[in-house]
């Protein structure tokens, strides 16, 4: 009939935030802390930095130019790292 079928999903702020963590950590650019502060607030940024500190200490992540980037070692545990950084 010329009409397209589609589905849409409305995500909560927490869901959008967690989705951003999951997808951005998988990119070469990493998770942009300035974007987090702009779109989700400074408090979320600070919480992420705190959560990331253990992975930085374990050489699974680096902080460079305001971005959290998984190292080669960290990429092996990307799903688990992202899940640990999620918010409820």
Tell me the number of strands: 3
Label the overall shape.
Answer: globular
Elements, N to C (H/E): HEHHEEHH
Which runs of at least 5 residues are low in confidence (pLDDT < 50)? none
Number of helices: 5
Largest sheet: 3 strands, antiparallel
For the terminal residues, how far apart are their CA atoms? 43 Å
How large is the radius of gyration? 15 Å
Helix content: 55-70%
Q: What fraction of the residues are assigned to beta strands by DSSP?
A: 5-15%
What does this 3D model show about the protein?
With about 90 residues, the chain is mainly alpha-helical. It contains five helices and three strands, in the order αβααββαα. A three-stranded antiparallel β-sheet has the order 1-3-2. Strand 2 and strand 3 form a beta hairpin. Helix 2 packs antiparallel against helix 3 (about 40-55).
In short:
The chain is mainly alpha-helical and 88 residues long. It is built from 5 helices and 3 strands, in the order αβααββαα.
Q: Any key phrases for this structure?
A:
mainly alpha; 3-stranded antiparallel beta sheet; 88 residues; 56% helix; 3 strands
Question: Topology, please?
Answer:
Blueprint: H1 13-25, E1 31-32, H2 33-40, H3 42-57, E2 61-64, E3 67-70, H4 72-75, H5 78-85
Antiparallel strand pairs: 1-3, 2-3
Helix pairs in contact: 1-5, 2-3
